[in-house]
């Protein structure tokens, strides 16, 4: 059978212009029945894969609306350090059809250290031998071959150390070319201990669409950077990190700033926006929290929006 890109180029060659009805790209998983443990609209399934010589696991939610012949987007959602995949499913709500009716949601799980703390590549305590960037790439190949996905609509979100990993995925030449848009929440962007700098950032395409949310009162991963709460390492200042992406994406230093995102009586939220491609929310009353309108696993402080809804809207605007 011809691959979709081939058929598409054939159509373009024949007609000379893109045809009106959208032709979705599709993965090898299209037409395949769901794996035994996985039910559309059912509880998430715990699935294992081998990557980098380790057995890794993830939770997968397939929406009720899933049809084996219709490609859908994929959302990867990474938990914070010391948390696990099911906690991230609860916190980020990507399995909730109110936020995400159509995309498959996958919650990868980090490897636990000798003290039983699960973490991701990029954390100062994470052994560099466990490469969660190549794990992500292996996971993407595995999912594309089993589920009917649109390979141009793969997205990544994550909390804290999981957000730090999302930032590294955006910088990696391979994964930056596989994932269409990135959403770190309370991202832990650690500086290299020996250089005092962020790790090298080499995306294979530009612009990289990226959105970050950070609580001004965050004491775990401070808004202005410096030592984390356990003094295991220094993180970068969030405005410096965001400016770095704006510069990399070739936007001018003059951004679009809105301080009226949340009207009174909500506490002040400032949004920075470069051409709807690099976006950042500074939430004055939040700590190390996934922003939400209701109390969640991270805490009882709320704001006027759910980060999950804003992320869904951001992702929906980007395809590879
Ligand atoms: C999946 O199940 C295994 C075995 O019980 C467990 O070790 C692992 O943590 C689970 N993974 C997820 C993502 O829940
Ligand atoms: C994930 O964490 C929750 C809450 O602490 C716990 O109930 C659950 O057993 C954990 N799951 C795994 C697979 O470790
Ligand atoms: C899904 O999200 C909606 C909107 O926040 C909420 O009312 C509902 O309780 C959530 N459902 C579940 C199962 O958590
Ligand atoms: C930190 O930078 C040094 C010098 O470039 C490099 O050798 C080392 O691998 C980096 N550490 C991490 C965790 O990436
Ligand atoms: C954090 O930065 C400070 C100031 O540059 C430095 O003295 C300290 O050693 C750093 N801490 C770590 C854990 O790298
Ligand atoms: C960056 O922007 C400048 C001015 O807007 C433009 O001349 C240049 O071609 C752009 N560079 C890239 C790599 O897009
Ligand atoms: C400025 O921000 C608004 C609201 O987020 C957006 O609609 C608009 O396109 C942005 N303009 C530029 C130039 O970034
Ligand atoms: C801003 O976004 C619009 C719409 O996506 C795009 O056409 C335009 O090239 C972008 N401008 C810059 C400077 O990147
Ligand atoms: C973030 O919000 C706090 C509280 O409103 C404010 O003091 C700080 O200047 C803001 N920083 C940026 C970069 O918006
Ligand atoms: C949120 O409020 C509830 C009820 O007052 C309390 O039991 C819980 O400990 C609070 N959660 C956090 C993280 O502070």
From TrEMBL:
Residues making up the signal peptide according to the UniProt record: 1-18
EC number: 3.1.1.73
Any one GO molecular function term: feruloyl esterase activity
Catalytic function, reaction form: feruloyl-polysaccharide + H2O = ferulate + polysaccharide
Annotated InterPro entries: AB_hydrolase_fold (IPR029058), FaeB/C/D (IPR043595)
Subcellular location: Secreted
A biological process from GO: xylan catabolic process
Keyword annotations: Carbohydrate metabolism, Hydrolase, Polysaccharide degradation, Secreted, Signal, Xylan degradation
Domain of life: Eukaryota
Gene3D superfamilies reported in the protein's UniProt record: alpha/beta hydrolase
UniProt GO cellular component terms: extracellular region
PANTHER family attached to this UniProt entry: FERULOYL ESTERASE C-RELATED (PTHR38050:SF2), PTHR38050
Protein name: feruloyl esterase
Organism: Glonium stellatum
Lineage: Eukaryota, Fungi, Dikarya, Ascomycota, Pezizomycotina
